[in-house]
Specification:
single chain; 159 residues; alpha+beta; Nuclear Transport Factor 2, Chain: A; 6 strands
Length: 159
């Protein structure tokens, strides 16, 4: 197995254990992360997102497969099953990930998934009907970013 494929497996195995520090150890300090909810996060902020998700996760199950990598790029398919805390609704998110590597670490991580489908599960009827609309998707993004801001402030205050 290519070392970068092992790195991806380590990342998701750590996620399965909710081991944010194990995940963050796979990232290069200059990492850039993107997905349909958070858009673009860089460096420490990308790491903070995983710390937040692991800490706040309840009833989280992660499955991953189809891990592939070479010296420069990699990919994986992963799925998350969890309760969305804001509504108590069950979510089964299906995600494809692309990676780029530098110095034996992940320097670029881009997740793609159907935000409208996610909104339908997480938000219920409103999300199913309106989740495709840019204002709804923008509101989802803004709420996620506010949550990350609050998490980072709380972590800083805790020392």
């Amino acid at each position: 197995m290519h070392p970068n494929a092992r790195l991806i497996e380590t990342f998701y195995t750590s996620f399965q254990k909710r081991d944010a520090e194990g995940m963050v150890a796979c990232y290069h300090p200059d990492v850039r992360f993107s997905d349909p909810v958070f858009h673009e996060l860089q460096g420490a902020r990308a790491c903070a997102m995983w710390r937040m998700l692991c800490k706040r996760a309840s009833d989280l199950q992660i499955e991953f497969r189809d891990v592939q990598a070479d010296d420069r790029t990699g990919s994986a398919h992963w799925e998350a099953h969890y309760l969305f805390s804001a509504t108590g609704r069950k979510v089964h998110n299906i995600i494809d990930a692309k990676f780029e590597f530098r110095d034996g670490k992940i320097v670029r991580h881009a997740d793609t998934f159907d935000l409208w489908r996610w909104a339908g599960m997480a938000l219920g009827p409103k999300g199913k009907l309106l989740g495709w609309l840019p204002p709804i998707q923008r509101a989802i993004h803004q709420k996620a970013v506010r949550g990350l801001d609050e998490f980072e402030r709380a972590q800083a205050a805790a020392g």
